[in-house]
Amino acid sequence: MDIEPAACSVVVFPLVRRIGKVRDVARKMLDKSTDRHAESYRDQVTTGLLGHMVRIGIPDQEQDEQLGAFWSAVDAEMTRLTYRGSRPGGSAA
Length: 93
Known about the structure:
Elements: H1 19-31, H2 35-55, H3 60-83
Helix pairs in contact: 1-2, 1-3
């Protein structure tokens, strides 16, 4: 009796939805003292995320989409953190 393995596909939890990771990376990016340090940190994070996606078998095109969405979310979070609390008269407006 031959049993054929079932076909499967990996369903990835979107990087953009990893809110804790997005917030952590955004805070660390803002803490970098120079653009060079921020760029180096960005490269480290990108390398780590790509390595993870390669290990679990994510196709190249989806890797690009995931990374683009992740860095867009990080950028939006950095903007939010930068301008939070900077409204004159508080945030009740």
